[in-house]
Design goal:
single chain, 6-stranded mixed sheet, 55% strand, elongated, disordered C terminus
Length: 191
């Protein structure tokens, strides 16, 4: 079925003794399960943008995405209940930048549930720290925001900075090509 709605179905079975028909009225309901995440991003990256970031052994150089980058084709593996080193690097260290990370833990298409605001930190240049990972499972969306002047909201359009989205998958054991992120706000400032 290609459209949302409720459908009736009819099954006809044949064999050498004849046929049997079973019909169910309004038996199947089809609804879209695709989540549409809100838009977020910076209007200008003339002062700074994401240069790169590291989570565990996952490293990504992204360069200037002009306010928003979708990297949901990149999966970061997070060890449920583990901990990991994280590091975020901007293109410039001239201004204090505020970093925020959200993960849609309940997979409802938003980042507004209280446990979904995972990591924050600020500094001139890169920020880093070791963070804990809650117990979770499955695959979902992660959003990272870098904003000049204050912390971003997950669905904010702001003047200076950048936002990137990724896919995360929670696993029960560490994987060599994955990475982990967590819930504690313990970044160190680097000047």
């Amino acid at each position: 079925y290609y459209s949302n709605g409720t459908y009736s179905v009819k099954l006809t079975a044949y064999n050498e003794y004849g046929e049997d028909v079973e019909e169910k009225i309004n038996y199947i309901t089809v609804s879209s399960t695709t989540s549409q995440y809100c838009q977020s991003g910076g209007s200008s990256t003339s002062y700074e943008y994401f240069e790169s970031f590291t989570i565990g052994d996952f490293y990504k150089y992204t360069g200037n995405d002009y306010g928003y980058g979708s990297y949901t084709g990149n999966t970061i593996y997070l060890q449920s209940g583990g901990s990991v080193y994280v590091e975020f690097s901007p293109s410039s260290s001239d201004r204090e930048l505020y970093w925020s990370v959200w993960i849609d833990l309940n997979k409802d298409g938003d980042f507004y549930d209280t446990d979904e605001y995972w990591v924050s930190g600020s500094g001139y240049g890169y920020v880093y720290g070791t963070v804990s990972v809650p117990y979770s499972s499955g695959t979902t969306r992660m959003r990272i925001a870098m904003k000049q002047g204050s912390y971003a909201e997950p669905c904010e359009q702001f003047s200076y900075g950048e936002v990137e989205d990724y896919t995360v998958s929670f696993v029960s054991k560490a994987v060599t090509q994955g990475s982990i992120i967590g819930t504690q706000k313990i970044f160190s400032k680097v000047k």
